[in-house]
Amino acid sequence: MGCTNGLLSAKEKKPLVSFGVISDVQYADIPDGHSYLGVPRYYRHSQLVLQRAVQKWNEQKLKFVINLGDIVDGFCPKDQSLTAIKKIVNEFNIFNGPVYHTIGNHCLYNLPRDKLLPVLNILGHEGLAFYDFSPVPEYRIVVLDGYDISAIGWPKDHPNTLKALNILQERNPNTDKNNPNGLVGLERRFVMFNGAVGKEQMEWLDCVLQNATKLKQKVVICCHMPLDLSASCNEALLWNYDEVIDVIHRYNCVKVCLAGHAHEGGHSVDSHGVHHWVLEAALECPSGSNSFGRLDLFDDRLLLIGADRMKSREMVFSC
Questions:
Q1: Lowest mean pLDDT among 80-89, 122-131, 167-176, 192-201
Q2: What's the confidence (pLDDT) of residue 108?
Q3: What whole-number distance in Å separates Cα of residue 212 and Cα of residue 313?
Q4: Any stretches that span the bilayer, and where are they (predicted)?
């Protein structure tokens, strides 16, 4: 995988399953730029990062790939949105196996849900993008739709849009609802580029985790937005991260929550021993560098082997 970072374990035991991970490709056919914080962004080079990732994943014969969201950037010219998204989806489809997508805010800046989800092959119920699958009997992968309640992606008069706008009106006094200025601490998450998990999805998540517990499965949760402050920053958190975590903590089956969105990456272990891994963005890789990885799932641990900017990490289960 090129230069791997800090591999913490060299145990010989074969993993139950291995899969590829990448986040925040945010491709656009435009010159390089910067984030609002001044961090360089390499819009065209991110496609090359993805190409190298797919080549490596195919060489490693991984079972599947998970994209943690934002395959195109919000600065992508809107008359090129569909073409750009299809272009990057086609790069993913060179992988010799299933690719599972998580939707992010930049995806929704470019296309509404009714056009985006078919391109990503997400067959959600009534436009929702949460789902789960079991790649091996011992594990279940749960993909959350963090923009279920959101001011972007849905029609302007959709109930989920109106709920989101009401939340923003109550919690963010700024005219520009993407601006967290004046908000303090955790309140800074109430910006338009974030969203929430709705009631139906929350009930579904509870049922999935209950079922996984009965089947004695370990669970990996994927969401574009982080669910733990210690792995991220206030501005990147899911609006109702605390409610989602309350559901997760009812059970002992969830071992790790994977996220993107906060481009610098991060890692934490919460009060119930759940690991939270935020993946470093492919978008912020200078020419020739990479940010993607392979996640190995074992009976007793998880091992993330990252390339270049993506840090390698190991998690050993406490029970």
A1: 122-131
A2: 98
A3: 25
A4: none
Helix axes 45-60, 81-92, angle to 10 degrees: 20
DSSP for 280-312, written as a single string: PPGGGPPTT----EEEEE-SSEEEEEEBTTSPP
DSSP state for residue 4 in the 8-state scheme: B
Residue 132: band (very low, low, confident or very high) from pLDDT cuts 50, 70, 90: very high
Instruction: Give, in order, the Cα–Cα distances in Å from 112 to each of 66, 80, 139, 285.
Output: 21, 14, 32, 28
Q: Provide the residue type at 304 as one letter.
A: L
Joined together, the tokens standing for residue 98 give 């299933």
Q: How far is CA 69 from CA 122, 143, 281, in A?
A: 13, 11, 10
Helices (H), 136-268: 159-171, 199-214, 241-248
Question: Mean of the pLDDT values across residues 84-90?
Answer: 98
- Give the Cα separation of 4 and 50 in Å (integer): 16
Pairing of strands 293-297, 301-306: antiparallel
State the Cα–Cα distance between residues 238 and 196, nearest whole angstrom. 6
- Is 155 in contact with 116 (CB distance < 8 Å)? no
User: What pairing do the DSSP bridges indicate for beta strands 218-222 and 99-101?
Assistant: unpaired
Query: Rounded to whole angstroms, how far apart are CA atoms 76 and 84?
Result: 8
**Is the Cβ–Cβ distance between 267 and 276 less than 8 Å?**
yes
Q: CA-to-CA distance for 149 and 167, rounded, in angstroms?
A: 10
Tokens of 300: 């007793």
Identify whether the C-beta of residue 236 lies closer than 8 Å to the C-beta of residue 276.
no
Distance from C-alpha of 146 to C-alpha of 245, rounded to nearest angstrom = 13
